[in-house]
Every structure is written in structure tokens, then in C-alpha cells.
């Protein structure tokens, strides 16, 4: 995995800190193929737009925001490739990955 940046400062609309951000090679390639950037998806994730998760997972994320557990978002690129974003419970790191890289 590659370290991209450290996003610990508060951003407008952000509901939590990302910590250090990482992206797997597969996710990087999927975004490059789609002509999209990680920041598009990270902004959605940070604002609690969980994307294509089930209602149960969305409720779990809301609980996790309050109680400090892991957060998961699921999105699709414009080329329909599914990507996940996972922020660790302690908010020290966030990783963008393909589901099969989990």
C-alpha cells in the first residue's frame, strides 16, 4: 500500500478525521482507469455519505461514529468498479481498496 497524505485536520463537512490515508495498487488502478481521484471518494466518506452500503451497515457506521468503531463506505467508479474505504476505529488510518483486496 502507498501512503498518500495525512488528513487529521478538520475539514468543512467532515464528521471525523481520516488519519493517514492509504490506497492499494488495485484501487489506484481502478481510479486511474475511471479518470477519478481518491479525494472525491474520501470527501464523501468523511461527510458520512456511506455510498452503497446496506441500511444495516449505514446504521452500524452511525453507531461507530458515536462509539469509536471502524467505518466502512462502498462506492462505484464511473466504470462501475466497486471500491471500499475503511477508517480504523482509532481514526489513525483510512484505506481505499477493492473488496477483493480486503
Query: Got a strand count?
Result: 5
Helix content: 25-40%
Q: Characterize the largest beta sheet: strand count, sense, and whether it forms a barrel.
A: 5 strands, mixed
Give the strand order of the largest sheet, numbering strands 1, 2, ... along the chain: 1-2-5-4-3
Mean pLDDT: 91
Tell me the strand percentage band: 25-35%
Shape by Cα distribution: globular
**What structural class do you assign from the helix and strand content?**
alpha+beta
Question: Features of this protein?
Answer:
102 residues; alpha+beta; 5 strands; single chain; 3 helices; five-stranded mixed beta sheet; 27% strand; disordered N terminus; globular
What is this structure, in a nutshell?
The protein has 102 residues and is α+β, with helices and mostly antiparallel strands. 31% of the residues lie in helices and 27% in strands.
Please characterize this protein's 3D structure.
The chain has 102 residues and is an alpha+beta fold. 31% of the residues lie in helices and 27% in strands. The chain has 3 helices and 5 strands, in the order E-E-H-H-H-E-E-E. A 5-stranded mixed β-sheet has the order 1-2-5-4-3. Strand 4 and strand 5 form a beta hairpin. The protein is globular, with a radius of gyration of 13 Å. The protein starts with a strand and ends in a 5-residue tail after the last strand.
